């Protein structure tokens, strides 16, 4: 059953990624002066996720090497993680980031099971 996401098998990836369009909120730490300090969360969209990384796009502007707290929504449930920005590209007026997932503060069971199942795919 396709719920707007699909599995990828890119040979260069160590961990398989779940591709799709997933809502993400980034905790505003004041890194981007264009975002009001009264705005606690900044909207973003994840394009893929694995147990160890995310690729997101957002207007929020943070430098490579920054740590960001991310709330990831999957099947109407949220998971929370701490990530490091490892790369950044500007595409059509939005920032696209590659995030290394340092730690899941809370990993929803449904997302955990889905990501674990990705690792069981034949090579």
Provide a short characterization of the protein structure.
The chain is mainly β and 123 residues long. The chain has one helix and seven strands.
Write the layout of secondary structure elements.
Blueprint: E1 5-7, E2 18-27, E3 41-50, E4 53-58, E5 67-74, E6 77-91, E7 94-106, H1 109-118
Written description of the protein model:
- This protein is mainly beta.
- Helices cover 8% and strands 53% of the residues.
- The protein contains 1 helix and 7 strands.
- The chain has a 6-stranded antiparallel barrel with strand order 2-3-4-7-6-5.
- Residues 5-12 have low confidence and may be disordered.
Q: What are the salient characteristics of this protein?
A:
123 residues; mainly beta; 6-stranded antiparallel β-barrel; 53% strand
Helix content, binned percent: under 10%
Report the uncertain regions: 5-12
Which series of helices and strands comes N to C? EEEEEEEH
Please, how many helices? 1
| Rg calculated over all Cα atoms | 14 Å
Number of strands: 7
Task: Please give the order of strands in the largest beta sheet.
Answer: 2-3-4-7-6-5
Could you tell me the strand content as a percent range?
Answer: over 45%
Task: Tell me about the largest β-sheet.
Answer: 6 strands, antiparallel, barrel
Task: Give the integer mean of the pLDDT values.
Answer: 84
Task: Report how far the terminal alpha carbons are from each other.
Answer: 22 Å
What is the 3D shape? globular
- Helix/strand-derived class? mainly beta
